[in-house]
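From the thread on structure requests for the teaching lab: each student submitted one protein with a one-line request. Submission from student K.M.:

"Model ElyC/SanA/YdcF family protein from Nostocoides vanveenii, tokens only."
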Amino acid sequence: MTWRRRILIAALSTGVLGAGVAVGSNVWIAGEASGHTYAVADLPEAPLALVLGAGLTPNGRPTPFLADRLDLAKTLFDAGKVQVVLVSGDNRTHAYDEPTAMMDYLIAHGVPADKVVRDFAGRDTYDSCARAKRIFGVTQLTVVTQSYHLPRAVATCRALGLDANGVGDDRGATYAASTWTAGAQREKLAAIKAAWDVTSGRDPVLGQQESGVRDALAAP
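Reply posted by the TA:
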């Protein structure tokens, strides 16, 4: 067998393996999330909404997609579908503080301050789900994100032992169609990372357990 033929066979084998991993990861997500994504009207009640970060604008405010998530969380709160909102985002530097921007947005839109809890180390979907359980002591929640991201978010939380349902926002598909399409396409590859995170059981950024969610639920 020539060296060129060996390289070709190796490349084809790698491609087939990679495709199989991608397909398997997406099938796992679809199965894990099946029956656990809802429209607002049909969503079962839960103690907590988990809003996942989606970036800040240069002036430090939530991006449009993140604002959509926060608006949806407020809708759930106003409808009595959730009692507390946990905002989970990135705060790796003092200059970038997603959770505080998310909290400020919710308060400005009428959610009581004592019903919003910040998670400062929700650096990705896996970290946010894992920390909700391991740091904040959450057992049941509703995940809030864009609808194309929702199956992966719900599947990740459920695989980590959370009783998780989810509801997704679709408004971005209308006012930012190209961004929406790109995000939906990225989900196919993000599924591989999600499967790896869950399988490896990697630790997110941890620390002492926090009572913020428990205190917020107890507040009148």
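TA comment: The two ends are 76 Å apart (CA to CA). The domain at 3-218 is CATH 3.40.50.620 (Rossmann fold).
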